[in-house]
Amino acid sequence: MRALDELSEIVGAPHLLTSADDRAPYEVDWTGRFRGSAPAVVRPGRAAEVAAVVDVCRAHGLALVPQGGNTGLVGGGVPLEGEVVLSLRRLDAVGPVDAVAHQATAGAGATVGAVQAAAAEHGLRYAVDFAARDTATVGGTVATNAGGVHVLRYGSTREQVLGVEAVLGDGHRIDRLEGLVKDNTGYHLASLLCGSEGTLGVVTAARLRLTARLPHRVVALVAFDGVRGAVEAVAAWRSDLGSLEAAELVLEPGLRLVCEAFGLPRPFDRAWPAYVLVEAAAHHDPTDDLAAAVRAVAPAAVAVAPDRARGAELWRYREDQTLAVATVGTAHKLDVTVPLAALTDFVEEVPRRVAAIHPAARTWIFGHLGDGNLHVNVTGVADGDDTVDELVLTHVAELGGSISAEHGVGTAKRRWLHLTRSAAEIAAMRSIKRALDPDGILNPHALLPGE
Ligand code: MLT
Ligand code: ZN
């Protein structure tokens, strides 16, 4: 194919992968649920090469799927409709870190973990954090506006992105990596690209906000006799515990599953319906503050980690939920926001509604309690059967929530976008898409529903 020859000339033959074996890891997502086929995987090593790749694809009308660490969960980064995969992983430079401005520049292919490590070398910290930190990349997390476990204190990826270098779908390059915190000169294009899921432009680097490193950190697992108590406790901690860093919900079935799947000891001598993994971090030791805040909500039981190693063990009850669910089967993964006032009823109601249509299915719920983001995972329902997705997302919409809290819409949820975005909003998004990607080559099957 002429276009592939041109791509090969741009990136060099070793970086245009065309054999089935070489392409295979780029063609399927982490869950194995989304699998496609690409004519080629193109791996540029510089931003100028990315721009040249976009130009060739525009000229030949070839659709592209930008891909970072391929940790996405909604089928937004794999070539489901025969697109070329544009892998940004070679753009993995981190730095320079500006310790005065508390900022760093990172290439799209740098992992979140690499940015965290570079920040730590300068006594600083990159606040975005989640279990896939050592695989997920800056480009992917910007494109999906990734959330994670620290959103309640620092916000999502969008709040950390001060500027981007990117190639738009129309071939224009934008370069705004100066890191000006205040710059009111029109549309904030970095914010627009953040969460656009590779449909408007290809991010090649980002200027990221770093935060102060808080040397004292304490972790506790707090048990409750119901989800309501957990929700109320986190609301109280958000008011009273200034050092609150994370508040993560785990339910008893998920905790039991993690213990069974990975041979972990149970954290308490008996089971409780709900648990909150709470972390506090500060310049001074926050243990006493955390202990007082926990006592004030009268929990059923508490396990406080006396040191970092035990803290990491407690985190496993929460962070290993995804891996544990994967041992049961390929899950329908629904990443939703539910208004906090409706969250308790939602957690009780959803497994009932799922069981009513799929008696053999299992519903696993965990998530980020501070911001109302629940991960509803359903196993035991065939891959192609989306009745359970429809049921959960419709319920979320009725409650005034969002069908995607942090994973994005991808290809998996675009047919439900109308549930929580109005016709006017979708029309505005389409206009933006047409303006920035007039040839419709950038991830054309993700995010927006087919017209
Ligand atoms: C999490 O919070 O663990 C992630 O978003 C991953 C998941 O939903 O499986
Ligand atoms: Zn999450």
Note down, in words, how this protein is organized.
The chain folds into four domains: 2-87, Uridine Diphospho-n-acetylenolpyruvylglucosamine Reductase, domain 2; 103-212, Uridine Diphospho-n-acetylenolpyruvylglucosamine Reductase, domain 3 (2-Layer Sandwich); 216-322, 2-Layer Sandwich (Alpha-Beta Plaits); 329-406, Alpha-Beta Plaits, CATH 3.30.70. Strand 8 (161-168) and strand 9 (173-175) form a beta hairpin. The radius of gyration is 22 Å and the shape is globular. With 451 residues, it is of the alpha+beta class. The protein has helices at 2-11, 20-27, 47-60, 112-121, 138-143, 151-154, 157-160, 189-193, 227-240, 252-262, 287-296, 308-319, 321-328, 340-357, 387-398, 417-420, 423-436, and strands spanning 16-17, 41-42, 64-67, 84-87, 94-98, 103-107, 124-125, 161-168, 173-175, 201-209, 211-212, 216-224, 244-251, 274-282, 301-304, 332-337, 362-368, 373-379. It has a seven-stranded antiparallel β-sheet, sandwiched between helices. It has a five-stranded antiparallel β-sheet with strand order 5-6-10-8-9. A four-stranded mixed β-sheet has the order 1-2-4-3. The mean pLDDT is 97. It is built from 17 helices and 18 strands. The structure holds D-malate and zinc ion. D-malate is lined by residues 130-131, 321-322, 333, 335, 375. Residues 147, 368, 375, 406 line the site of zinc ion (ZN).
